[in-house]
């Protein structure tokens, strides 16, 4: 099963989703990420926090949802409304859920405050992915209505 983590710029939160999911996913499950208007580079803060946590970002890059290497089975949007973001809506045939996460790339303040924003975003994304992977995936992939209900529930959870 292919899971797409989707946001606008594909440089930070969706990258975290892709990298964390692939780091933890069981065989047969794979994540990709994309943006509706990719900025063309990965956010340095996102890359730093992932590497600090022992999660490789090798081979990842900012890409458009028009250039996906596979068709996703599940699409999880990770944009938030805090910075007046327009959350892209994937229109292809896929199970869709929204897991809003504030964008740490827009954090302001001291270096410690900015790092804390990345830690918070990482913590939320990782926690939700852990809950996703705790689900009975083999059962749910054949029950899309129940799967969507579970993904929506997870999208409201905070660590």
Automatic annotation (TrEMBL):
Keyword Iron recorded: no
A Pfam family per the record: LMWPc
SMART domains from the UniProt entry: LMWPc
UniProt KW keywords: Arsenical resistance
InterPro entries, sorted: Ptyr_pPase, Ptyr_pPase_sf
Example GO BP: response to arsenic-containing substance
Phosphotyrosine protein phosphatase I domain segment(s): 1-135
Cytoplasm in keyword set: no
Protein name: ArsC family transcriptional regulator
Organism whose genome encodes this protein: Methylomonas koyamae
């Amino acid at each position: 099963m292919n899971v797409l983590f989707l946001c606008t710029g594909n440089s930070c939160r969706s990258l975290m989703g892709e990298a964390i999911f692939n780091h933890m996913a069981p065989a047969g499950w794979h994540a990709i990420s994309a943006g509706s208007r990719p900025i063309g580079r990965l956010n340095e803060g996102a890359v730093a926090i992932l590497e600090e946590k022992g999660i490789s970002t090798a081979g990842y890059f900012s890409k458009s949802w028009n250039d996906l290497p596979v068709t996703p089975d599940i699409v999880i949007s990770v944009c938030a409304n805090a910075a007046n973001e327009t959350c892209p809506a994937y229109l292809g045939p896929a199970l869709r859920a929204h897991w809003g996460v504030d964008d740490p790339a827009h954090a302001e303040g001291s270096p410690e405050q900015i790092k804390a924003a990345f830690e918070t975003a990482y913590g939320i994304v990782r926690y939700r992915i852990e809950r996703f992977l705790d689900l009975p995936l083999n059962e749910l992939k054949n029950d899309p209505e129940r799967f969507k209900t579970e993904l929506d529930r997870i999208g409201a959870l905070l660590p």
